[in-house]
Amino acid sequence: MMRSLKKWIQPLSLVLGCCLVLGGAAMAKESDNDDTSADALAKAAQNPLAALVSVPMQFNFNNGAGPYGRKLFNLNIQPVVPIQGEKWNIITRTIIPVNSVPVGETGSVFGLGDTTLSLFASPAKAGTVIWGVGPIAGLPTASNPEVLGSGKWGLGPTGVILVQAGKWTVGGLASNLWSVAGDGHRDDYNLFTAQYFVNYNFGHGWALGTAPILTADWKADSDNRWTIPWGLQVSKVTHIGSQPVNLMLGYYDNSEHPEGAATSKVIFQVNFMFPTKGK
């Protein structure tokens, strides 16, 4: 564990330092803006069930992938569209991956990966505890199914629960996806995903937190089943022109991972947020 911690302290320090410099410049430009609005948007960005249209674009730079320890690039385009009702809200969350996967010592395959679509039903009038449940589907949309996708359709349950109290946002999200149809020549899958998140909001749209994504391939042997990351991220609500965005920068080290999987990653996310008037 200590070896793992030492390995990510230096890059994490670099990530935090860069974010402070960039965010400081953004804050200087926002001196006349409403800090309460920035803080509300920061909390909305941390709430997977917020009644807010947003389009996060997450750039993942994975290190140490494959037998030659190469870089693996992944861009997740993640539109969130809430459908508000009188008693219940339906929140749609889609993840469309664009990947560059290393092949051999020097080659790579670039293209679209498999898409996942989650639908959460959540009470329209949330209390202290905010929650939502629903289905998750895996869509075989990969442009190169042999390298970038599974060739299978998937289905399963998903759920999220969180609390936003004072300056804190704490919660978790989990899902399990089973292959149900598709290419009969491809292996079936049984994949578990969980994410816990803890964020502390400092004000002026700034937040520090952690939101690692844990995965398990239940069909793999026990030595190659889990991916368990540890790390931190810094985020800042700012504006690009009149468009509010939440910028996030983080570093995560995989203390456990399957053979050939990435050992660590740097994340940079730009979340375009579209609040309704009056909010």
Overview of the structural elements:
The chain has 279 residues and is an alpha+beta fold. It has a single domain (2-274), classed as Porin, CATH 2.40.160.40. The chain has helices at residues 2-29, 35-46, 145-148; strands at 53-65, 70-77, 80-83, 88-103, 107-112, 115-123, 129-139, 152-165, 168-182, 190-203, 206-210, 213-217, 226-240, 243-256, 264-274. The protein has a 15-stranded antiparallel beta sheet that branches. Strand 13 and strand 14 (243-256) form a beta hairpin. The longest helix is centred in the N-terminal third of the chain and has 28 residues, at 2-29. The termini are far apart. Mean pLDDT is 89; it is low at 1-10 and 19-33.
Produce the secondary structure layout.
Blueprint: H1 2-29, H2 35-46, E1 53-65, E2 70-77, E3 80-83, E4 88-103, E5 107-112, E6 115-123, E7 129-139, H3 145-148, E8 152-165, E9 168-182, E10 190-203, E11 206-210, E12 213-217, E13 226-240, E14 243-256, E15 264-274
Largest sheet: 15 strands, antiparallel
CATH superfamily: monomeric porin ompg
What coarse outline follows from CA principal-axis ratios?
A: globular
At the first level of CATH, what is the class?
Mainly Beta
Low-pLDDT residue spans: 1-10, 19-33
Would you identify the CATH architecture? Beta Barrel
DSSP summary, beta strand count: 15
Helix run count: 3
Alpha-carbon Rg, integer? 19 Å
> How many structural domains?
1
Name the helix and strand elements from N-terminus to C-terminus, one letter apiece: HHEEEEEEEHEEEEEEEE
CATH-defined fold name: Porin
Strand content range = over 45%
Helix content: 10-25%
Question: Termini distance?
Answer: 44 Å
The overall pLDDT, averaged over residues, is 89
Structural class: alpha+beta
